[in-house]
Write a structure and sequence with these properties.
By secondary structure, the chain is α+β, with helices and mostly antiparallel strands. It is 37% helix and 15% strand. It has 22 helices and 24 strands. Strands 6, 7, 8, 9, 10 and 11 form a 6-stranded antiparallel beta sheet that branches. It has a 5-stranded mixed beta sheet with strand order 2-1-5-17-18, with helices on one face. A 5-stranded antiparallel beta sheet has the order 13-12-22-21-20, with helices on both faces. Helix 1 crosses helix 5 and helix 16 packs across helix 19. The longest helix is centred in the N-terminal third of the chain and has 31 residues.
Length: 752
């Protein structure tokens, strides 16, 4: 009897509280409703949209704005995403009028019993109301406003319009607003390409974007995803088989906030600077688009090439050991939390991922990646890391469970490699030799680490990559590829080198005696290059080099010019080599195609700059044949692994190996690669060993399926047989190219 009396008291009390709440709510509504915001503004939804930068073929490579957001039309969103959102947030969305009465009643009772506003019952429409018009504070007044606004919104917009607003407006973590941006942030793909498992994880984010962020805390995000999938199954959105398959689906989470189709941050920053100067602050919120001359396949290939070049260089110079050390708690939950926190605190560096060592034995090193994946580093990595595994390794650097390291894959089918944060820098730029349009632009290893643009800002000594401009001047003075010079020690008057005593040597510190100019170039003989410059005339050679676009103040009329002791940027070197590739025409490098508004209306078009004839086409042709020999049998013979005979170029290594270069071209690309330290110090390697592999990797992709071409000799170039040693006419000798007016056997020109 007492039990029934108690239950009756409880129900009467609850009923009284509910009636009181309804009375208060009704009175509040009467007061608040007339003062609610005008929801008709939602009809003209115009969110802040970032400036976006695209390749020539429409791939996204840059974005600048307060919010990462892309607006999508509801009909273009996957059905599984819409169903996942409804299952997670508002199952009865298409049935209620903006407020789910049962849900509100349940929450109200819970809040009254708990003595505060602790539980909500927000429908999707109420969340839209809050996102557009209200704060997120938890108060009774805000909840009433939210409910009233939801009713008002439902009377103004259709259900589909409301859901579309929600999909585009809601914050989902990692600075991503809307599900399109979130799909790119977390999965690296546009929204229309996600599957059921991915949709369920995205749909779980609105409840608590920070707590369920799969980049930061994948285990918790996975639990939330499983909840959403179960809800979808329970309300018959998906079948049991689909549920099982989605549960087992291994998700690949992006470890970086990079949401682009390819990294091109240094170029994107150049574009941003131009746009800000021209259009001002509006570029960050009006959705303007800039299309560049870059092509996505080229840019991806260049980024991969630079990454591989730097990683391989770093590994050749030994493994320095762990990046940091964790003390792993004995408790499994605490251990997982410690690992997750350590990985979340470290970002990706151009594909170099942070990882925590879980186990080390004689056969493998097992590591945990952000996102929960565990990978094994095999016996080769054990051998590579021996210095950090042995007893002599310091405690801070020794590899053990809890060590924080970096790992990388240089291709989707390649094994995971142990690596370290690199100290060295690198750059690669390529352009069309016919138009000067930039096709790939990598200004440094990682933009987050260093915003310094090595393609346009790094003034470094080009070393032997500058020699072709000296040899081109020699051809114009009547010196031929068959002209013989001494490869022997030489002493240069200090007055001719800027007042510095100079005892030049060949790189290999050896001499070979007399040799033709062709042989001297493909063997990169420094002592011969100095004699070629001397025979050409320093002043004449300097003026000739200026034709290729180099600023006069950085091309001094000194003998050191023969060895590239001047300064140039990688972009300037690419423009210079394009003259050879383009038959004597100089191009102006450019990267802007057009600017449009968010609707695609063109605001600005950029025309291709006119080319300028600066070199005799015959000179360009003969120089191309000389540079082909550098590839076929000289210091760049590694490029022959591409299996093409139409490649030409020159390696470069400066004093003390401070700068390493390769500059060269094929039928449709001129590309220059560079590797060195920002604070110049020896790299310990040559251009052929450090820079050329990057160029080869890039050109292999850029020239894939591009037919091999031959270079036709222009009128006025003749082929003569000469002795390969003496350079004199010899019917039994080898074929050599000559300008008609400068046949073989003629003496050196008089000095100027």
């Amino acid at each position: 009897m007492q039990k029934w009396r108690f239950m009756r008291v409880v129900w009467v009390s609850l009923s009284a509280m509910i009636v009181a709440a309804m009375v208060v709510t009704g009175l509040s509504a009467a007061v608040l409703y007339p003062n609610l915001p005008d929801v008709a503004t939602l009809k003209d939804y115009s969110p802040k949209l970032p400036l976006r930068i695209y390749t020539e073929d429409g791939a996204l490579i840059g974005e600048f704005g307060e919010e990462k957001r892309s607006v999508v039309v509801l009909k273009n969103t996957p059905l599984v995403l819409r169903q996942a959102i409804l299952a997670a947030e508002d199952e009865r969305f298409y049935e209620h009028g903006g407020v789910d009465s049962l849900g509100v009643l349940r929450a109200a009772v819970s809040n009254v019993l708990s003595g505060g506003a602790k539980e909500g019952a927000s429908t999707i429409t109420m969340q839209v109301a809050r996102n557009f018009f209200l704060s997120s504070e938890k108060s009774f007044k805000r909840k009433i406003n939210e409910a009233l606004l939801a009713v008002k919104i439902e009377s103004t917009l259709s259900k589909d319009e409301i859901l579309e607003l929600y999909i585009n407006q809601i914050y989902l973590g990692q600075r991503a607003y809307g599900f399109e941006a979130a799909a790119r942030v977390y999965f690296g793909k546009p929204l229309d390409q996600i599957d059921l498992a991915e949709a369920a994880m995205l749909a779980g984010l609105p409840k608590a974007p920070s707590a369920y962020n799969p980049v930061v805390n994948f285990p918790r995000a996975k639990i939330r995803q499983q909840y959403v999938l179960k809800r979808m199954r329970d309300i018959k959105f998906i079948t049991e088989a689909e549920f099982d398959q989605a549960q087992r689906r291994k998700l690949v989470i992006r470890y970086t906030p990079q949401t682009f189709d390819a990294a091109a941050d240094h170029l994107a920053e150049l574009v941003r600077q131009y746009m800000f100067q021209k259009y001002g602050e509006q570029i960050y919120k009006t959705g303007m688009r800039v299309y560049t001359t870059v092509r996505i396949a080229d840019q991806k290939a260049a980024v991969d090439a630079v990454r591989a070049g730097v990683v391989e260089y770093t590994r050749r110079h030994g493994y320095p050991g762990a990046e940091a050390q964790l003390t792993l708690p004995a408790n499994a939950q605490d251990r997982e939390a410690a690992i997750a926190d350590a990985l979340a605190a470290r970002g990706e560096l151009n594909g170099l991922l942070p990882a925590v060592v879980l186990r080390v034995d004689s056969k493998r090193i097992r590591v945990r990646l952000r996102g929960g994946d565990e990978v094994d580093l095999g016996p080769a990595e054990i051998e590579f890391a021996q210095a950090a595994l042995g007893p002599k390794a310091s405690a801070a650097r020794r590899l053990r469970p809890g060590s924080v390291v970096r790992v990388v894959r240089l291709g989707p089918t390649q094994p995971w490699l142990l690596t370290a944060t690199p100290q060295v820098e690198a750059a690669l730029v390529s352009l069309s030799p016919e138009s000067g349009a930039i096709r790939a632009f990598v200004g440094g290893f990682d933009f987050v680490r260093s915003q310094y643009n090595h393609v346009t800002q790094a003034l470094r000594q080009p070393g032997s990559t500058f020699k072709p401009f000296i040899y081109s001047a020699a051809l114009e003075r009547g010196i031929t590829p068959a002209t013989v010079f001494e490869d022997a020690p030489i002493r240069i008057n200090p007055a001719l080198t800027g007042g510095v005593e100079w005892n030049p040597q060949n790189y290999e510190r050896e001499t070979e005696g007399p040799m033709t100019m062709r042989r001297a170039l493909y063997k990169s003989k420094n002592l011969v290059s100095i004699r070629v410059l001397d025979a050409t005339g320093v002043g004449f050679a300097q003026q000739h080099a200026l034709r290729f676009g180099f600023p006069a103040e950085r091309v001094p009329a000194l003998y050191t010019l023969a060895l590239g002791a001047n300064e140039a940027t990688p972009l300037e070197m690419a423009v210079g080599y394009a003259v050879f590739a383009n038959g004597g025409l100089r191009v102006k490098p450019h990267y802007l195609l057009r600017v449009t508004d968010k609707e695609g209306r063109v605001l600005e078009n950029f025309t291709t700059p006119e080319v300028e004839p600066v070199l005799d086409p015959r000179n360009a042709f003969v120089m191309t044949t000389l540079l082909q020999d550098v590839v076929r049998r000289g210091t760049a013979v590694k490029a022959m692994e591409l299996g093409r005979l139409d490649l030409a170029g020159k390696t470069g290594t400066t004093d003390d190996t401070r700068d390493t270069w390769f500059a060269g071209f094929g039928p449709t690309r001129v590309a220059v690669s560079w590797l060195g330290f920002d604070q110049p110090r020896p790299t310990g390697e040559t251009g052929g060993g450090a820079a050329l592999p990057m160029w080869v990797r890039y050109m292999g992709a850029a020239l894939h399926n591009v037919p091999e071409v031959g270079y036709a000799a222009p009128e006025g170039v003749s082929v003569r047989s000469v002795n390969p040693v003496t350079g004199q006419p010899d019917p039994q000798g080898v074929s050599e190219f000559f300008l008609d007016e400068f046949p073989p056997g003629r003496p050196l020109p008089a000095r100027r």
